[in-house]
Design goal:
mainly alpha, 3 helices
């Protein structure tokens, strides 16, 4: 009973958060890689998040557009 409720709440939270993610290929790749590693391959959550969090931050870090002075 309680475990089913917890799973349902986690799934709902995942759907809500997925709707807020910017529509970029990198964001989808990070979500898919994390889901695959934890859900399908059943790797431990903490190491997966410890690797994926910095990678996603680096991928989302704002970059300065190259202008004529940078060329």
């Amino acid at each position: 009973g309680v475990a089913a409720v917890a799973v349902g709440m986690l799934m709902r939270l995942g759907v809500i958060l997925a709707k807020r993610v910017p529509r970029r290929a990198v964001a989808y790749a990070v979500m898919l890689a994390t889901f695959t590693a934890v859900g399908v391959l059943q790797w431990p959550l903490v190491p997966v998040v410890a690797v994926m969090a910095p990678l996603s931050i680096i991928a989302a870090w704002p970059r300065r557009p190259k202008g004529p002075a940078d060329a």
